[in-house]
Amino acid sequence: MHNYSLWTEGEVRTPSPRRPGERETHGNRRTQVLDFDIAVERQPEQPVIAHVTGSIDLLTAPALRVCVEDCIHGSRADGNGMVLDLSRVGFLAAAGVTVLADTEHRAGRENLAWAVVANTRPVIRPLDLLGLRDQLPTYDSVPVAVDAVCALARCS
Predict the structure, then answer these.
(1) CATH numbers and ranges of domains, the chain
(2) What CA–CA distance (Å, rounded) separates 92 from 150?
(3) Contact by Cβ (8 Å): 97, 127
(4) What pLDDT is recorded for position 141?
């Protein structure tokens, strides 16, 4: 999980990424519990795998974007690619879809191998409605996505 401050100054402050169940307080007011986490798995000669859990919405999409940027940076260094596992995502809002579309655009521009595991209705439905499922490298499981990325990248 990345613990980067999403806003550094100004009047508007968004919650920074937290572990599931942690609460953030603003003065005397408590915010809702965000059930969101990203676990990044790095193994030699394999794509970087980011397992996302929870809802991807306006509050959590910036953390996803930071994680994707970090994974892309790592995958460019070793040339093994990246897999974004959304199999445990319960809600995918427009902000999350934008992160996926931007990642695909960047991957095409920079010749990066990547894949998305999209096998649940909350993820597949928005992608289908927007016609993005055919444009993104989507797969039904992590092993299949890893194999596909390895076929395009320099995995052994």
Answers:
(1) 45-152 (3.30.750.24)
(2) 26
(3) yes
(4) 97
Number of residues assigned to the chain: 156
Distances (CA, A) of 127 to 33, 51, 110: 26, 18, 23
Residue 95 tokens, joined: 């902000």
Chain Cα centroid distance, residue 153: 19
Which are the contacts of 73, defined by CB distance < 8 A and separation ≥ 6? none
The pairing of strands 36-41 and 114-117 is: unpaired
Please give the residue that has the higher pLDDT: either 57 or 34: 57
CA 45 to chain centre: 21
Backbone angles phi, psi at 4, to 5 degrees: -95, 140
How far apart CA 149 and CA 80 sit, in angstroms, is: 8
Question: Is the pLDDT assigned to residue 139 strictly greater than 90?
Answer: yes
Q: Quick one: which H or E segment has residue 109?
A: helix 94-110
Instruction: Determine the pLDDT at residue 156.
Output: 57
Q: Residue range 90-118: average pLDDT? A: 95
User: pLDDT at residue 33 above 80?
Assistant: no
Q: Note whether 25 and 31 are within 8 A (CB).
A: yes
Could you report how far apart the first and last alpha carbons of the chain are, in Å? 27
